[in-house]
């Protein structure tokens, strides 16, 4: 990443100091590690690695003070010297004898304001804050976010706000409950294997902030997608160990958190999206004053989940004599070694194999699939519907019209099962979709291509193996997800 003048000023000062330990914003860990290799950089999210000692240099980002909290900042102010400040950063060091650089003292004002404001340390009067991957370009993430919001309302909160991963801090003031989830939020590395401490901080910082304010917190229905670094393990273990309850969506994830991170209590539930038909059904207003899921947020509050689209036109019905086939294969799915051209050719072949007998729709779950889906749509004439730009209700309504669903998307499988379609899946045996099928929906095993290498099956094979899920298996998944709603009610 390119660093502007404010960042460069911090680098220049750090380069003049004797190397040691350095505490920095999560997003700066990689560039600082590259620019200052002699320093041991620790991201905010993994501050617990330092124990009670202050590092040799602390880089305070004034827009991220909430990730450290007023208690830590007061200790830092009392036991260290301000070396420098600009419009973005304040540099502290506990080392004796260091000479501060010249700076405008007005740059310290936001820190003082934060310290004097501080967390209220009280439980609020009815708001739940849901921190998740809401509105980040994936309909599956939106689905579990909206499920979490509806669960909070049904558990007894008067309102519930979905904030996305980085806009939670203002909403948390005066809140009654913090929810993290659901979806595959727990990871510390990207697809290239590089550390991704920003993601760690996205979901650990709100938990620390809730603890400082005395706000109950729960992490529900989440998945683990790789916790590989010492810093990530320390950060997740510290933050998840503070929650009132923690649940995951499959047994492998439960083992990873209990054995890998040493967490003593991890409940096994299921993906929150299984509960959507129950949660989004029209609810009678309760005498307790609990608001329905469509209650708008307060003026100035962060964006909440959209209102129900039940009043809007439903998806068009399938064409007469032409059953509808929805295709939600991810560009990143296995079998093609991230060869986008080869994937596009396979998807085009699948569309063409189905078109003589089906009305084929490309159901786009993620913006990541946009370019190739548009290309295949143009080449074949198949409609492409960008579900990631619409509502969860609209996606569920569309899947309910499908006779056939071919998917490599986790939530494509769930939506198709809820809609009653015949399903064909592409999965990695040890990945999240493979585990869902093998542990929760074994009736779909014959309807799944389990890939361990290149894709060798012709596209038409997917339509041949499709079958519906066993209703008893689906009902068991729904009940497992409902267990989180029971726990939330008990918590509140």
Distance between the termini: 43 Å
Largest sheet: 6 strands, parallel
Query: What best-fitting shape do the alpha-carbon axes yield?
Result: elongated
Give the CATH topology of the largest domain: Rossmann fold
Indicate the proportion of strand residues. Answer: 15-25%
What's the CATH first level of the largest domain? Alpha Beta
> What is the domain total for the residues?
3
The Rg value, from CA coordinates, equals: 24 Å
List low-confidence stretches: 285-312
Q: Total number of β-strand segments?
A: 17
| Mean pLDDT over all positions | 91
Structural class: alpha/beta
H/I helix tally: 17
Strand order of the largest sheet: 7-6-8-9-10-11
Helix content: 25-40%
The CATH architecture of the largest domain is: 3-Layer(aba) Sandwich
Q: How do the strands and helices of this protein lay out in sequence?
A:
Blueprint: H1 5-15, E1 21-24, H2 29-35, E2 40-43, E3 57-61, H3 69-79, E4 81-85, E5 89-93, H4 109-117, E6 127-131, H5 139-155, E7 159-162, H6 169-172, E8 177-186, H7 197-213, E9 217-224, H8 230-240, E10 245-248, H9 251-260, E11 267-268, H10 276-280, E12 324-328, H11 340-354, E13 359-364, H12 370-380, E14 383-386, H13 392-400, E15 404-407, H14 410-419, E16 422-428, H15 432-439, E17 448-451, H16 460-465, H17 471-491
Parallel strand pairs: 1-2, 1-3, 6-7, 6-8, 8-9, 9-10, 10-11, 12-13, 12-15, 13-14, 15-16, 16-17
Antiparallel strand pairs: 3-5, 4-5
């Amino acid at each position: 990443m390119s660093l502007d003048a404010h960042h460069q000023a911090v680098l220049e000062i750090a380069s003049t100091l004797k190397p040691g330990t350095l505490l920095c914003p999560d997003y700066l860990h990689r560039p600082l590690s590259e620019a200052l290799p002699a320093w041991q950089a620790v991201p905010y999210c993994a501050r617990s690695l330092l124990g009670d000692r202050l590092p040799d240099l602390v880089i305070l980002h004034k827009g991220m003070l909430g990730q450290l909290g007023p208690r830590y900042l007061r200790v830092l102010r009392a036991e260290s010297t301000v070396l420098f400040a600009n419009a973005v950063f304040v540099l502290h060091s506990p080392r004796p004898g260091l000479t501060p650089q010249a700076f405008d003292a007005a740059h310290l004002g936001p820190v003082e304001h934060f310290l004097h404001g501080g967390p209220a340390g009280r439980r609020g009067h009815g708001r739940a804050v849901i921190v998740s991957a809401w509105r980040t370009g994936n309909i599956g993430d939106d689905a579990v976010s909206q499920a979490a919001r509806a669960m909070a309302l049904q558990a007894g909160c008067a309102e519930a706000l979905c904030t996305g991963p980085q806009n939670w801090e203002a909403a948390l003031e005066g809140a009654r409950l913090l929810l993290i989830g659901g979806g595959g939020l727990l990871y510390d590395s990207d697809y290239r294997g590089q550390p991704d401490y920003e993601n760690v901080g996205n979901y650990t910082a709100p938990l620390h902030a809730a603890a400082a304010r005395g706000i109950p917190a729960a992490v529900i229905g989440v998945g683990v997608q790789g916790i590989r670094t010492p810093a990530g393990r320390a950060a997740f273990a510290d933050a998840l160990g503070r929650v009132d309850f923690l649940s995951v969506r499959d047994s492998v994830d439960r083992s990873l958190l209990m054995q890998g991170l040493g967490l003593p209590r991890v409940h096994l539930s299921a993906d929150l999206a299984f509960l959507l038909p129950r949660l989004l059904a029209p609810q009678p207003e309760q005498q307790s004053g609990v608001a329905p899921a469509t209650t708008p947020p307060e003026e100035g509050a962060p964006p909440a989940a959209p209102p129900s689209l039940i009043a809007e036109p439903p998806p068009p019905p399938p064409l007469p004599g032409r059953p509808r086939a929805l295709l939600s294969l991810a560009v990143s799915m296995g079998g093609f070694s991230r060869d986008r051209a080869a994937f596009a050719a396979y998807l085009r072949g699948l569309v063409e194999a189905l078109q003589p007998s089906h009305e084929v729709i490309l159901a786009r779950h993620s913006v990541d699939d946009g370019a190739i889906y548009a290309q295949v749509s143009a080449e074949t004439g198949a409609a492409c519907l960008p579900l990631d730009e619409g509502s969860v209700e609209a996606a569920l309504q569309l899947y309910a019209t499908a006779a056939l669903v071919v998917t490599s998307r986790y939530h494509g499988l769930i939506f198709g099962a809820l809609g009653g379609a015949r399903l064909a899946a592409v999965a990695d045996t040890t990945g999240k979709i493979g585990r869902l099928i093998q542990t929760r929906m074994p009736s779909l095993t014959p309807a799944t291509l389990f890939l361990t290498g290149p894709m060798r099956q012709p596209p038409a094979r997917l339509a041949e193996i499709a079958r519906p899920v066993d209703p008893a298996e689906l009902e068991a998944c729904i009940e497992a997800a409902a267990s989180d709603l029971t726990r939330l009610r008990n918590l509140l």
